[in-house]
Protein 1
Amino acid sequence: MRRRIAAANWKMYKTPQETVRFFDKFKQFPDATDHCEVVIFPAALDIPAAVQSTLETPIQIGGQNIFWAQEGAYTGEISADMMRAAGATWVLVGHSERRHQVCHETDAEVLKKAQAAIAAGLTPVICVGERYEEHKAGKAHDVLIRQFAGGIAGLTEEQFAKIVIAYEPVWAIGTGQTATPQIASEAHKLIRGEAAKRFGEEAAENVRILYGGSVKPENIEGLMREPQIDGTLVGGASLDPDSFAKIVQASRPLS
Ligand code: PEP
C-alpha cells in the first residue's frame, strides 16, 4: 500500500520569521500525519527555521533545488550534502519553474541532481509535466515518455526505489486551472507504465506519484478519489496554514 503524501512547495515566499509563524499556526491543527506524510519545501534560507519549528513532529522538510556536484567553484549553488546537513530530508528536482520558465534545466541535469540527492540520503521528488502547447496539441503523453526516458530511466533499480515522482502539467501550475482527476489519473497510469517497462511491475506498483497544479481545498477531494494519485504537491494553497491543513486532512488513504 503506497502511503499518501501532502507536499508544500513554497517557492520564493516567506522569510524565516514568516516560516516560524506558519508552523506555530499549522501545528495547532489536528495531526493528520497518521494517514499521510507531510513534507514542506521552503526556500533554502528558511530550512533551518523550518527544521527547528518541526522538531519532535512528523512533519518533514525538503529543499527546492540542489546542484549535482559535491563541492567546488559553483557560486550560488547548494550541494545535496549541504541540504542534508541543514536538516532537509527531501528535495524537489526538475520543477517546471526550473526546467522551462527560468533556468532551462535539461532531463540530463535532472538525472544528475536526482542521483546526487539519493547519494546524500535525500528523497528526490522528480517533477515531470507537459506545457500548455503540448497539452493542446495532444502531445502530453509523448512529453512524459520523453522526460521519463531522458531522466528517471537513467536511475538504477536501487535508486528508483528511493524516489517520488510528481506529475505537474505546466499549464495547471499557478493558473487556477487544475487538471481533472481523470487527466491526472491517466498521466499517472502512463508514468507507472513507463516505470514498469524499465524497472519491473513491482517497482512501478511501489513508486509514489503525486499530482501538482492548482490543488486547493476545494478540488482535492476529487483528486484523492483516484487510486493512481498518491498525494499532491501544492504551491499557492500551501502558503496559508489553514488552507494547507485542509489539504493534509483530505489526503487520507482510499478505504
Ligand atoms: C507547484 O509549485 O509545484 C505548484 C503545483 O503550484 P500551484 O499549486 O500554485 O499550482
Protein 2
Amino acid sequence: MRADPVQRAIDEDLVRVLYAQNPIAFFTHWFAIAVLVSIYWVDMPYPHLFAACFGFYAVANFAALGLWLCRRRWPNAMTARNWIRLHAVRGVLLYSAPGLAIWFAFHSRQADLPVLHTVMLVTLAAGVFMSNGFDLLNFSTGIIFVLLPAIVLLFGSHNFDRTILAIVLAFFFCAINVYAISYRKLFQRVVQARVDQQQLAESLAEQKHVAEEASLAKTRFFAAASHDLRQPLHAIGLLAASLNDVAVTQAQHGKTAAHIVHNVEALNQLFNQVLDLARLESGVTQVIRLHFRLDELFERVGSQYRPQAAAKGLALRIAPTTMVVHDDPVLLERVLSNLLSNAVRYTEEGAIWVGLRRGGRRDGGYIEVRDSGIGIPAVEQERIFEEFYQVANPQRDARQGHGLGLPTVRRLVELLGGELRLRSAPGRGSVFRFPVRVGDPGGIVTSLSDTVVTGPSAQGRRVLCIDDDPSILEGLTRLLGRWGCIVRGARDETLALQALSEGFVPDAVLCDFQLANHRTGAQALTAVREALRRSGHEGAVMLLITGDMASGELATLAAQGIPVLHKPVTPARLRRTLEILWQQAERDGAAGNLATASCPLPASR
Ligand code: ADP
C-alpha cells in the first residue's frame, strides 16, 4: 500500500464515493427485502429461520445507515483507510443475508424460486459493482456473499437448467470482477490526474509567490542602494562645487577636500560591500580550504577590533583554542570581521566574546560571537538577513552601516557549507554561531600571520601583463615596476605568446578577462600556459582580473580553482595575492599549475 500523497488522495476520494451511495443503497435494500419476502410469502420454508435471516438483513440495513450518519457527523474520527475497512464490514453484514437466503429457495416447494432469487441477486450484484467497484476490499467482500452461495447451490442441485444458470452466474461473477479491475484502474488514474493537477497548481502558485517576493526584494534592494549611493555622491557634488568659490580660504578648502575624501571612502566601502554580495550571488567566489590554527585567525581579527571595543569601554575576550581547522581563512575572516564589527557597534556596555565550541561535525565545532549588546527582537531575526535591512536606522544614516553585513555573512557561511544561527533577545545581547571543519595539524602549510607579514619578495620577479586597455597596462607596469618587478605588457594573446617566444619567462601572468576580438582571459591563459609547458617552463603563477560579475565562464573558472581578482583591485590586494601565490608555488615545489584548487588566495576575493 502506497503511503504517498496520491494514495492518501485515492483513499479520501474512495471514502467519499463509497459513503455517497449509502442513502440510495438503504432504500434499494428495503426494496430487495420487500421483493424477496413477497416471492417467498406463498410458501415460506423454515419460517422462524427465514424471519431471523430477514430481521438480520433489516437491522444490518439500519446499521449501514447509522455508519453513514457517523461518517457525516465525525468525518475525522478515523483515517480514510479505516473508514474504508468499516465500510467493507458493513458490506459483509448487508450482503450476507440476501446472498445466503437463497438456501431457502432450494427448500421451498416453488420450483421457480431459485431462479427468481438468482435474478434478484444479479440485480444486487450490479449495485455492488456500481457502488463498491472502486475498491477491491469492499467489492470482493460484497460480491462473494451475493453470488458465491447461489453458484454453489445451483451447481449442487444436479439439474440441467440450474447447472446452466450456475455456469452463466459463474461467468457473470468472473466478468464483473474483470470489469471491476478496469473500473478501479480508471478511478485511480482520475484521482492521480486530479492530484497531479493540484500539485502543479500549488507549485505554480508557490513559484509565483517566490518570483513576486524576489521582485519585491530587488525593488527594495535598488531603492535602498540608490539612496545610500546617492547620499555621498550628492555630498561630493556640493563639496566639489564649493571648491570653485574664490572667497573660500585655504583652510576651508582643506576641510572641504577632507570631506570629499571621506565621502569617496564611504562610497568605495559601499561599492565594495555591494560587489562582495554580487560576487557571492553569482557563484564566482572561490572556497579555498587550508589547514590552519584557529587562534591565529582569532588573533588577527581580534587585533583589528580591540581598539574600537576598548574605545567604547568594552572587553573583547577571545577564548584560547588549540584547534586546527580546515576551512577558507579569507572567507572566515570576512565572516568574523562582520560579526565582530556589529558586536562592537551594537554593544554599549559589557563584553564581546569570540570562541570555539566543540561539537557538530565530526570533532569539528562552532565559532560563536557573543555580545552583551542591545539584542535583536524575535520579529526582526529573519529580516536582518535581507539586503539593506536595518532594525533602527530609519534615516539611513550611513555611519550606522548599510544593512549588508549580515546578508553577506549568511551567504559566506552557506558557501562554506554551514548554517548561520542566531540567538538573541532585546536587552540581553546576541549570539551568532556557525560551524567550522576540523583540520589536520600535519596539513598546515602556511601560518596566517606569515602570509600577512612576510611574503616572498616581488623584487626581480618577471611579470607578464595581458590587457587590451593601454591605460591599465601602463598603470600595472608602473606599479609592478615600483615593486621591483620586470614587467612585459601585451595587448592580446598573440603579443603575449610573442613575448614568450622572445625568451621572456614570467614568474607571474596577470590577465584581464575581457580581451579584444572576443577573446577571453581564460583562453589567453590557457594558450600562455601551453606555450610555457612546451618550452619546459611551468613555474609561472597565473591570475585573472575581471570586472565581470556573473559570467558563467568565470563561475566555471572559480569552480576549477583558477584565482580570479575582481576590479577594482587595490595595489595592496594585488601585492598580497601575488605574494601568497608565489609562496604557495615555492612550497609546493611545483608552482605554476594554478588550475588546481590548492593555492591559498589572500583577502582579495
Ligand atoms: P549593518 O551595517 O546595519 O550593521 P548588518 O546586515 O550587519 O548591517 O545588520 C543588520 C541589522 O541587524 C543591523 O542594522 C542591526 O539592527 C542588527 N544587528 C546586527 N548585528 C547585531 C548585534 N550584534 N546586536 C544587535 N543588533 C544587530
